[in-house]
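Amino acids appear as letters; backbone shape is given numerically. Here is one record.
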Amino acid sequence: MANVLKERYDALVATWVALPEERREALLREFVVDYVYNSEKIENESLEFSVVRDIVEMDQVSGYSGELDVLVETRNLKLSWDLARVKLVEDPCLSEELIQQAQELVTMGAYGERLLLAGERPGTFKLENYVGGPAQVGLPSVEVPRAVGILADDVNTELEKGKRSLTIAAYLHARLFEIHPFADGNGRTARLLMNGVLLAMGMPPIVIRAQDHATYHAALDLFHLEGDLSPFRRFLRNETLLTWEGLLD
């Protein structure tokens, strides 16, 4: 089963690479709405697709009666997507500063009063030992800068080889989520940077669907508890197929 999944994934990547640039760009414009919707939906179940479409395509929304924070975070995801595409595709190099900049865009204007009073700010590493996810992962705050620096170096070493590898992007996501370097927005930042690295390698980005969040977190927990990246990598292959199969022909 795993071999079949890998074969289908590899075939899809080959099809993506062979597409004319204009076709890939058109597909990516359509992708953004689905990506933003699902990445935010994982955090806010009340989000509606029509709201995301209006924000992404027209930078406005009408008839909305929900929480303002949801609108802010949704627009942030669109802005941060634009940043990741420019920064990582034009210069495929990860840095501590870029990770902080990405998180700042993801969370700007959305930190709650509790975090702000505690001195936490978007774009800066956490001051307290916040944890997250079902397994309550997160390094102590004093260990975060060094861990993030090592992670960036590890990813850059692989990017410099010029290969297309889902493993690099999967490791970046899983390890960044495990470090949990920020007071908020860790999952959204990890999903953003993972996709930025995939695009930098010339590979198709991934929509991690909100309805698959239980499997998503279970695979991340296995990486944290056992150091095994393969379940998360298999999950990402499957999500890639669900994102793109039938659209690339």
User: Anything to note?
Assistant: The first helix runs from residue 2 to 18. Residues 42 and 228 are 23 Å apart (CA to CA). The mean pLDDT is 94.
